[in-house]
Amino acid sequence: MSHTIAAVSTGSQISAIGIIRLSGDDCITVADRVFTAQSGKSLLDIPDRKLVLGVLRDRQERVIDQCMAVVSRNPHSYTGEDTVEFHCHGSPAVLAAGLDALYRAGALPAKRGEYTKRAFLNGKLDLTQAEAVIDLIEADTADAAANAAGQVGGVLQKKLAPIYDDLTNLCSHFHAVLDYPDEDIEDFALDSYASMLRSHAKALYALLQTYGQGRILRQGVAAAIVGKPNVGKSSLLNALAGYDRVIVTDIPGTTRDTVEESVMLGATRLRLIDTAGIRETADTVEAMGVQRSREAMENADLVLFVCDGSQPLTQEDQDIIDLCLNHENAIALVNKSDLGARVDPSDLPFMAVISICAKTGQGLDQLADMVEAMFAGQAPCDGSILTNARQYDACRRSYEALLRCLRGLQLGQTPDAVLTDVEEAMEAMGEVTGATVREDITARIFERFCVGK
Ligand code: GDP
Fold it and tell me: Which single residue of 75, 252, 284, 331 could bond 229 by disulfide (Cβ 3.0 to 4.6 Å)?
């Protein structure tokens, strides 16, 4: 018996429509206490998944709102339980009053992610699908949304569930032969499973390879803006951010720390890191900045080297260029194009050299196209990309255990020695799909959700 929970599932801002959602065994009865259908019918008697017009009332029988109700009966609902939704006017006051009436009628406040957790516990979603729900809600680019939507639809689940099933079959076959020697069970020959183990290891390897793209989908491209002082790094960051994020002065070395800003550049999300001028100096504060610049560059997916195109390149520029050469994705931005061109692009050994003007924004479209082309991933954003660190870690453990199995097979180890690794691979896979995940971990996963989802 699951108790009835209720929450507002839409945001807390004023909007055209706001939805209150209930789920639980007696939620239709609870909802019926506060809703009167225009037709006079009880919610208990209305057909499944059909919108019904009526009014919500508070305890004093005052009308809170005229709204639509929809009942979805178990198992044809998001949670797999009976659910009711009230589509109200999106006033926070209306929704609060409606929720209050439902609490008084017997519903309990839903906890964070409780609807999705119930969907998971009732087998409507596996854990990869449930986790993708929060990714879909939080997605801030079309690609991230498309990948999360694919995973909600079960793309990852369909890849991983067969691996878990095959490993379970292997283990149960082994134990059946061992535990029931008198039964007529097909002999256990570990070798016959070798090609299955190999093909799953291969599939997991391919999946693990998508994680780099997945991290970028989730967090954006980490882009370090580097260059000597006064070339326009902060101006560039401000131009990309669309507002004055950093104070711009013409005194060299004024940006002494790193500043981070998340911006959309065309269709790509960038996590921009503006660094202090990379410059060896006796000044300790600035020296710290230099250190951070180096670090920022090391952890960046993309380096944007900025120079002042209206001045000839100096040794200082050259030293920074040398640092950039170690990075696989570096673009040179020749800034201050409005002041004339004194830098020859052929002196800049970068994969791309773009003339820009941070003051007017000229050249930034070209930069956007270039970055988009650089980070358009190999894997399609249809749910095949691994974006979640927890899933990545478990898939990696599963993959490594499978490699150990294959090595054990090659070395002719005994089945029970190899089985230990098979079980480990299975356990780790089960953590991803949710088949073997611990309750405390599940609880933590759903705490990331908002109330009402
Ligand atoms: P940073 O030290 O590299 O961060 O450089 P700033 O962004 O602080 O800019 C240094 C100076 O160059 C400021 O006076 C800016 O207004 C100026 N500046 C930056 N970009 C441009 C540009 O595209 N054109 C012109 N004319 N001046 C610029």
Answer: 252
